[in-house]
Amino acid sequence: MSPIFPVILSGGAGTRLWPQSRQAYPKQFLSLTSGQTLLQQTAERLFAVASTPPLVICNEVHRFIVAEQLRTLPAGSAEIILEPVGRNTAPAITLAALAATKDGADPIVVISPADHVVMNSQAFEVVTGQAVSLAEDGFVVTFGVTPDRPETGYGYIKPGEQINGSPGHRIAHFVEKPNADRAAVMLSQGGFLWNSGLFVFKASVLLSELEHLAPEILAACRLALDGAERDLDFLRLASEPFTACPAGSFDVLVMEQTGKGAVVELDAGWTDIGSWDALWQLLDKDADGNAGRGDVIALESKNSLVWSEKSLLAVFGVENLIVVESDDSILVADRGRAQEIRKVVARLDAEGSTRHQVHRRVYRPWGSFDALDSGERFQVKSIVIKPGQGTSMQLHHHRAEHWIVVRGCAKVTCEDREIILEENQSTYIPRGAKHRLENPGKGDLELIEVQSGSYLGEDDIVRFDDVYGRE
């Protein structure tokens, strides 16, 4: 039996889960169904199958979030490959196959997106074993899920003939994401499966298929991986060849074209949480069909999702609604039109807003900050710095800063002076002074920062020394 090489694809923006999911912090980094994030759940699920840490392929802007979330898990991460730009699933999976064979090995590659939920891990392991056996025989295998509703957010697969008495079937044909009427017809006819986006294949088999199905992608990915450079704990792809790589869907370019395609049925409580309605389907509900998170009240209401981060959120006398409160935005939508919420994101993008890109809380490799309040010449932030971490040595041309320690211990460097601040102590950083803030303690450092000056943008930073390799 060939070894198993697990791979997580951590791309995508999750626009249909706005306002919780945003470009800088998309849905795979959120805790939606448990105390763990979707990425963490995926890593543990694959580790149970392969007994080896997964390779993660992600955009370089998310690298520190991925590393931090995997750091806390027993599985850890063997490698994190950084894409300079997103090129969809075909190049990402091609990279995975190339990485799997870089030392002359030829393992079975198991591909999973980072943003899926599987409720029954044992059933997932059994079906993955079935897929691995088919992959050993030269098939490129995907997982299909029996539909329980006329879902328009998924593609569909029509299974064909059974393969040598195994649980697998050849793929008769694919159906792109249908409209509601077509989805209802397929559900009533039966025999169709949702296309899960999970794949299993032998690395050499896929690379051979790519030679004639997507040779330009294969060549570009080879160049990008051959020219990759080590950056801290990451492998950064060569930017020029990968940026020039054609974008494309693995389903369209490979699975719909190959003669080696196969599907196994996955009955394990799978969903990709592609929308707020999909999340509502998954969550526990009250007697009236309402699902909630946070400080919420649903009175004389039915079949609604009510989601709050900080505020008391009450709904009264409504049905089939999505009501979501985030740190800086509120969404109210018809649950039946959950797939269309991406139109809100498109509108924000067209208007030049940043509320589809970043949350009020912004994550950095050293921790995070939350913009609490701002005015014409001031801004107040709550800052958290992780143990042993710190900011770069830097200065600001247009603002001064006041720091007040709320919890923990801070080491402050300001020009040629170093001081230690304990709880309830404060200091002042003049405009134009070189400075650094560090956490020498074993717990989180929390402080309040008050900025004042003529310009308070995040781009007013001149870095002199940064352990995270940022410019």
TrEMBL record:
<dbReference type="InterPro" id="IPR054566">
    <property type="entry name" value="ManC/GMP-like_b-helix"/>
</dbReference>
<keyword id="KW-0808">Transferase</keyword>
<dbReference type="InterPro" id="IPR014710">
    <property type="entry name" value="RmlC-like_jellyroll"/>
</dbReference>
<keyword id="KW-0548">Nucleotidyltransferase</keyword>
<dbReference type="GO" id="GO:0005525">
    <property type="term" value="F:GTP binding"/>
</dbReference>
<dbReference type="InterPro" id="IPR049577">
    <property type="entry name" value="GMPP_N"/>
</dbReference>
<keyword id="KW-0342">GTP-binding</keyword>
<feature type="domain" description="Mannose-6-phosphate isomerase type II C-terminal">
    <location>
        <begin position="353"/>
        <end position="466"/>
    </location>
</feature>
<dbReference type="GO" id="GO:0016853">
    <property type="term" value="F:isomerase activity"/>
</dbReference>
<dbReference type="GO" id="GO:0009298">
    <property type="term" value="P:GDP-mannose biosynthetic process"/>
</dbReference>
<feature type="domain" description="MannoseP isomerase/GMP-like beta-helix">
    <location>
        <begin position="294"/>
        <end position="348"/>
    </location>
</feature>
<feature type="domain" description="Nucleotidyl transferase">
    <location>
        <begin position="6"/>
        <end position="287"/>
    </location>
</feature>
<dbReference type="InterPro" id="IPR001538">
    <property type="entry name" value="Man6P_isomerase-2_C"/>
</dbReference>
<keyword id="KW-0413">Isomerase</keyword>
<keyword id="KW-0547">Nucleotide-binding</keyword>
<dbReference type="Pfam" id="PF22640">
    <property type="entry name" value="ManC_GMP_beta-helix"/>
</dbReference>
<dbReference type="GO" id="GO:0000271">
    <property type="term" value="P:polysaccharide biosynthetic process"/>
</dbReference>
<dbReference type="InterPro" id="IPR011051">
    <property type="entry name" value="RmlC_Cupin_sf"/>
</dbReference>
<dbReference type="InterPro" id="IPR006375">
    <property type="entry name" value="Man1P_GuaTrfase/Man6P_Isoase"/>
</dbReference>
<comment type="similarity">
    <text>Belongs to the mannose-6-phosphate isomerase type 2 family.</text>
</comment>
<protein>
    <recommendedName>
        <fullName>mannose-1-phosphate guanylyltransferase</fullName>
        <ecNumber>2.7.7.13</ecNumber>
    </recommendedName>
</protein>
<dbReference type="InterPro" id="IPR051161">
    <property type="entry name" value="Mannose-6P_isomerase_type2"/>
</dbReference>
<dbReference type="InterPro" id="IPR029044">
    <property type="entry name" value="Nucleotide-diphossugar_trans"/>
</dbReference>
<dbReference type="Pfam" id="PF00483">
    <property type="entry name" value="NTP_transferase"/>
</dbReference>
<dbReference type="InterPro" id="IPR005835">
    <property type="entry name" value="NTP_transferase_dom"/>
</dbReference>
<dbReference type="Pfam" id="PF01050">
    <property type="entry name" value="MannoseP_isomer"/>
</dbReference>
<dbReference type="GO" id="GO:0004475">
    <property type="term" value="F:mannose-1-phosphate guanylyltransferase (GTP) activity"/>
</dbReference>
